[in-house]
Structures are given as structure tokens and as C-alpha cells.
């Protein structure tokens, strides 16, 4: 049997590296996507409250936002919520930080939701 010296065996190092990279991407997505969805829910809730701000006082809106934050398990307290009416406009600002644990390190993801809309009186 003749040996071919031009042939060489190749390892699967490239395949292993791609598998590790895929694992890291899946881990990051697994940790980040739920946080982003929860944050988007809070923003949508604030936007909905701003649409119907004529029916509520700023204190009622602030209480509703704090209740929703508790329901979504977001680290928001009274100091993180600022609501003000300026003429026929309402301005809302909610700032909070969510720590995202990646097992190796923790990333503090800061959210700053700001909404400014005109108040429509029906």
C-alpha cells in the first residue's frame, strides 16, 4: 500500500471554535433578551399612560409606573421617576439600572426612558 505524502490530516479546531462562539452568543442572548423585553414593556406602559395623561394627575401616573415596575420586578423607586406637566404637554422620565450576570462578569445595563407628548383632552 502506497502512502500519499501530499495528504494531511486536519483537526476540527475550526469547528470547536465556532461551537464555542455559538455558545457564547446563545448565552448572551439568553441573558439579554428578557431584560430588553421587560424594559420595552415598561416603555410601552409609560407611553400608554402619557396618551391618557389628561385623566390622571402626575402623582397617579407615578404610582401606576411604580406599581408596574414592581410587577415587572424592575429596580425602580420613587427617586427614579420624574413626571411633570408643562402647559399642554407631559414629560416622563424613568431611569434605572439592571445588573446582567454573565457568570464571568456582571454588566450594569442602564435604561433612561423619556417620553414627552401633548395632552389630548377628550
Rg over CA atoms: 25 Å
Q: Oligomeric form of this entry?
A: single chain
Low-confidence stretches: none
Structural class: alpha+beta
Q: What is the chain-wise order of helices and strands? A: HHEEE
Give me the number of helical elements: 2
- Please give the largest β-sheet: 3 strands, antiparallel
Q: Work out the count of structural domains.
A: 1
E-strand count: 3
Task: Report the principal-axis shape.
Answer: elongated
How much is the average pLDDT? 87
Kindly list the characteristics that best describe this protein.
three-stranded antiparallel beta sheet, 3 strands, 2 helices, 122 residues, alpha+beta, single chain
Write the layout of secondary structure elements.
Blueprint lengths: L12 H39 L6 H14 L9 E6 L2 E13 L4 E13 L4
Antiparallel strand pairs: 1-2, 2-3
Helix pairs in contact: 1-2
Amino acid at each position: 500500500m502506497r502512502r500519499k505524502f501530499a495528504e494531511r490530516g486536519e483537526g476540527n479546531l475550526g469547528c470547536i471554535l465556532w461551537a464555542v462562539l455559538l455558545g457564547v452568543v446563545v448565552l448572551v442572548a439568553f441573558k439579554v433578551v428578557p431584560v430588553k423585553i421587560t424594559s420595552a414593556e415598561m416603555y410601552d406602559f409609560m407611553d400608554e399612560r402619557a396618551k391618557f395623561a389628561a385623566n390622571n394627575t402626575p402623582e397617579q401616573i407615578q404610582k401606576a409606573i411604580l406599581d408596574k415596575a414592581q410587577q415587572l420586578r424592575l429596580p425602580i423607586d420613587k427617586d427614579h421617576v420624574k413626571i411633570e406637566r408643562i402647559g399642554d404637554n407631559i414629560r416622563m422620565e424613568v431611569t434605572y439600572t439592571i445588573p446582567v450576570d454573565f457568570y464571568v462578569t456582571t454588566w450594569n445595563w442602564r435604561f433612561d426612558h423619556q417620553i414627552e407628548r401633548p395632552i389630548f383632552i377628550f
